[in-house]
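fold-stage: in
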Amino acid sequence: MIFSLLHNPCSTTLFTIYKETKSWKWTIVSALLPIVMGFVLCFFVAQVYRIITG
């Protein structure tokens, strides 16, 4: 559920980012950053849950 809140933007958003920045680098960063953040946050939440529940 946490990951679904942080998934990557839709293709229209990525296209707009590319149009405005004219850079594939920032378009790819904009797509990958939320995915990586989602995985990291889910990992930390799972670890905290495991610590709390023993």
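fold-stage: in (second)
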Amino acid sequence: MPYSEQELDRLSRTLEKDFKLLQTLKLIQDYHSRVFKCPKCGSSDLERVSLLQYKCRQCGSTLIYPPFSPSDFSPNIPFSHILELVNLGIIEAAHGGSKGISYVLVKPELVKRVLEDKGFIEEMPKIELPELEGELESEEFFNLISDFRSIVNLILKSVKSGSSAHFLLLGPKISLKSLIIEELTRIPGSYFYVPGADPSLDEVLWSVKPNPLIIPNLDKMKSSVDLSTLVNFISSNKVFVRKVGDVIQHRSTITASSSSERGIPRDLISYFITFHLPPIEDEELRRKIMTKLVMERSGKSEKLANYIAGKSSLFSDFGFREFLELAKLCDDEGCVDSVVSLLLKYSKPSEKKRKSKGQKS
């Protein structure tokens, strides 16, 4: 439903007086984005037939818009906000029920405009694999780029639509797995949750409400509480928060990663769309990717970035993220050598033995 400039001005002035009303609008807009789509083709191009009935312009299917109740949200929407939004013509009362009167959003374009103006809706960053040099433009290289973009765009589609699909990336550190995880951390609203960390998973979902939620090393999640929280959340979009003794509802796309399926409960794996990502075998290709990543993410010169990437052959346990962390520490080659020397000195015993044998040969 279109809106006028007068309606926009009136809503903007109201929000200046009550900032919390803006947060309520964001909750309602998020709900609307999740449910306002054709059940058959997924299109959001819907024509209003009645208060609750819409017709899809793409496939002709009908949709019954599920109204919301203030108690459906956590925290519950204050009744004063409901009255204000009804008076502004943003929402309309639909019908009564076990939870009281339900409502529908009738001015979604107006709400979206205001949220964008206030910075509550951020544009997703353009995700691209660093452009590499011409000599590496082999079939393997093009396939790598194509697969990277396809997987990232698939995850982004879920994040934007609120469809709550979930993804599991399996593979070694030097693979598309690391590149994809690194890119997803740049999405506004993302949260990087390390298994076993504090706060617990239920508290993160309650207080941060991340989307997407990124879980590295899923096989290291051993807490029965976190595992139970994860399964319940994936299967129902609900979380029991022990700290407050309450159940909240939230939608989020989860992207987890692991080196293999070992250590991950089989019933948990079944909830994910799984990608088995092989290592990037070509050493020169790995080095070029690392060089470009270090340059773009840390602002280092091409010479220093290439020098850092050249150390990749010394650390089989390192992935792209570790080299980005190394780049943050150093601004010259001497610093790189010093840090690398320490890392080699205190690397795993098996790694030392392998390096020693390699140096003797």
